[in-house]
Amino acid sequence: MTFDPGLDILPKTERLGFEYGPDTFGPEVENRFLKDIRASLKDPRCDGPEVVYSIAMDVGKKKHKELLHKLHLLYGVVTYAAGRLGKEPIRSQGHIHSISPYTNMSTPEVYEIWQGKAIIYMQETAKDNPGRCYAVEAEPGEVVIVPPGWAHATISADPDQPLTFGAWCIREYSFDYDEVREHKGLAWFPVLDEKGNMTWQRNENYEYSDLIEKKPGKYENLGIEKGKSIYQLFEEDSDRFLYVPKPELKKEVWECFVP
User: Where would I find the Glucose-6-phosphate isomerase prokaryote domain in this sequence (predicted)?
Assistant: First the structure.
């Protein structure tokens, strides 16, 4: 990778997963198979890689393990296969972060791209009216933040290379898929043409809402500093991302949030 995430961890692309350095802890990966995500795809019968992506939830430096538990913070890493899902790019299922038993709220997520090109798609709700819809394109070293309660999915914007990213989330995380699946996906489907260019098609199971395509915000009011990885920022100030398990700390930011 050209980007240094601040952790001794290396994504594997032939057989998806991660290699951890001697000072880094991490679990065996969980694989998401094509059969697991068909219900959220535009064409549920499409062809694609059998293993679409691999997830390692709870990685970090061994010296921080106890502190991360104490702060209710969890760092997860994900790597996607190269290729396509029929005419769609490789992507995750759309979901909303469930109400956390720790904070009694849905919680945000802080993404950081390590390799490849990503689009973090997000919409305010997964109800009939999805509210504002954003497609935020990010490259290695760039950060995208998803606010509490928003439905979202992570999309690989380049079918010719794998996508890898890390993210801060709450330790007591869980996902709610119900409303997204009731609408047969999110409000906009990403579609690739033969040259690999991304276009968007509306999901008619929602009321119409414009799609706003943009680059990531600076997020200075959420502790992000350009040129520093989000793990490095945590090392410098372990309280910096306390708004992830305790989103009420940034209530004023979420009220008028633009990613």
Answer: 49-207
